[in-house]
Specification:
- It is built from 15 helices and two strands.
- With 393 residues, the chain is an all-alpha fold.
- It has a two-stranded antiparallel sheet with strand order 1-2.
- It is globular, with a radius of gyration of 20 Å.
């Protein structure tokens, strides 16, 4: 599952990395690029809960094979695109297929003991950040030597290789859980805790999408970095994401061990407050004159965004039924993708106008809003602790 999340981000970040070259060659604007990202994000929004529910029902083996086969074809099809419509369609198919990635990861870690699940989540999810780190290092040489279309063909080869590996490995995957003891909560739209989770995850982690998709355009437009130079720089922001997954996974496992069967809601609120504060420096990125400082700001933003993901998923997976873990992960990632879909065209328009300060300010304000919604819902609920939902023997 770690490897498939790596491939998923290799696939999706190839367009972001090569955007300056592709936009210039095909005479497309940054706003059109934003709409391409939105087509992916809307389909990803739909695909996450659909695949999450499917994996809960049919299991990892069949579900992941179908999903990865679909997105592998979609990724390779980018090599044939020559217009805005062609890229938008390829991105949509890719987004829908990749909706299975993180629901599958969260379902896979349910076999671990409670005190190890947050770190297990970090491992399964960390492939995404590792893929984002490797994309500029792997894709740039291919694109420089053979052209950007060849880079997309390589992503298709990676997906096909994973499918060949998955068939024998996945024979050991256990079937979905059949039941639980106690009175676990199923996922319901009217459940306030579901919306608290969505606010923390989707809004708190928004800077992750903003940095991953916007950094190549910003560094090219504001600092004049060439396509080759971007390949040497753009591993830094996702490194913050990678480090964040493991650091916050370690933190949440410590919190779980100290809390025992119940973890105080105040612990989650304190962690979200800390993560919100760590998100604030992104607002002044435009004022940082040195390239190294800009990269440091991106690193910190993705580090904090990873925390919103890990802490949010730990909260939701402890409260809701384990039978719904795929749906939980799909709802979180899908809602995050929806926020990205809505805001990326606006970010692209601001980038076209070189209104970088406004773009950074908006990207920073969204996590603050997410934290405010989290606090408001928790105060209205008056919950003191979240209990661990144990499986039936």
């Amino acid at each position: 599952m770690m490897l498939v999340s790596l491939i998923s981000y290799l696939d999706r970040n190839t367009l972001a990395l090569l955007a300056p070259t592709i936009l210039a060659e095909l005479h497309l604007s940054a706003e059109q690029y934003g709409w391409m990202i939105s087509s992916f994000s809307v389909a990803y929004t739909l695909g996450n809960p659909v695949w999450g529910a499917a994996l809960d029902r049919i299991g990892l083996r069949r579900g992941m094979f179908l999903a990865v086969a679909l997105w592998t074809v979609a990724s390779a099809s980018h090599a044939l695109a020559s217009s805005f419509a062609g890229f938008a369609l390829a991105r949509a198919l890719l987004g829908f297929g990749e909706g299975a990635t993180f629901p599958g990861g969260l379902r896979a870690i349910q076999s671990l003991p409670t005190a190890q699940r947050s770190r297990g989540m970090a491992v399964a999810y960390s492939g995404g950040s590792l893929g984002a780190i490797l994309t500029p290092l792997v894709v740039t040489p291919v694109a420089v030597l053979y052209g950007w279309r060849a880079a997309f063909l390589c992503t298709g080869v990676a997906g096909a290789a994973w499918l060949a590996l998955w068939l024998p490995v996945s024979r050991a995957v256990p079937p979905p859980a059949s039941g639980e003891s106690g009175d676990p909560s199923r996922v319901r739209v009217a459940e306030p805790r579901l919306w608290a989770f969505i606010a923390a995850y989707a809004l708190g982690a928004l800077p992750l999408g903003f940095v991953l998709y916007g950094a190549p355009l910003y560094l090219h437009g504001a600092f004049g970095q060439s396509q080759r130079a971007l390949g040497h720089l753009l591993w830094v922001p996702p490194l913050g994401w990678e480090v964040g997954y493991f650091f916050w996974g370690w933190v949440m496992d410590r919190v779980s061990r100290r809390g025992g069967a119940k973890t105080p809601v105040g612990a989650y609120t304190a962690l979200f407050a800390c993560l919100t504060l760590l998100s604030l420096p992104l607002a002044v990125t435009r004022e940082l004159g040195a390239l190294a400082l800009v990269l440091a700001a991106f690193f910190l933003a993705t580090f904090a965004a990873a925390g919103f993901v890990i802490v949010g998923l730990t909260y939701a997976s402890r409260f809701f039924s384990r039978r719904d873990v795929g749906l939980i992960a799909g709802t979180g990632a899908g809602s995050w993708s929806l926020v990205v879909a809505v805001l990326m065209p606006l970010f692209g328009r601001l980038f076209d106008r070189h209104a970088y300060g406004a773009a950074f300010a908006l990207a920073t304000a969204v996590p603050v809003l997410g934290f405010a919604i989290w606090v408001a819902i928790q105060r209205s609920r008056g919950d003191e602790a979240i209990s661990e939902r144990m499986p039936a023997p």
